[in-house]
Amino acid sequence: MEGSYGFQLHQSLDVDAADLRLTKQRHSAFAGSSDLHEKLQAAGRDTLIVTGTLTNVCCETTTRDAMQLNYNSVFVSDANGTRSDEEHVATLINLALYFADVMTTNEVERLIAKGLS
After folding, report:
1. Does the pLDDT of residue 1 top 80, yes or no?
2. Domain 26-114 of CATH type 3.40.50.850
3. How far apart (Å, rounded) are the C-alpha atoms in residues 80 and 29?
4. Burial of 65 (0-12, 13-18, 19+ CB in 10 A)
5. What is the pLDDT of residue 104?
6. Contact in structure between 67 and 73 (CB atoms under 8 Å)
7. Helix segments in the chain, DSSP class H
8. What is the pTM assigned to this prediction?
9. Domain assignments of the chain as residue spans, ordered by start
10. What is the radius of gyration, based on Cα positions, of the chain?
């Protein structure tokens, strides 16, 4: 809930004033939950890098919806988390097989450094 402790960004995050921030209303950041799709389209973006919690709920749902909207999706395996290793791994397998490129943080950093999407 907006204004609650769980709604706040962690103090250790480096948040720039130009960073896109939005509030989603459902598990997916798409599907009528927020204006993410419209903002990404307006900015000419075609790639989504997904990190967060819970791996097998919000992060997976957003990634699946992103693929349905024709985004190139990268799911960062060591920057998503959930309640158990089994749930985490099951999601990584499903996403890698059908919905996204699954990469580690180091792999994503190398791609960004090379200027690749």
Report:
1. no
2. yes
3. 15
4. buried
5. 98
6. yes
7. 36-42, 60-68, 85-98, 105-114
8. 0.90
9. 26-114
10. 14
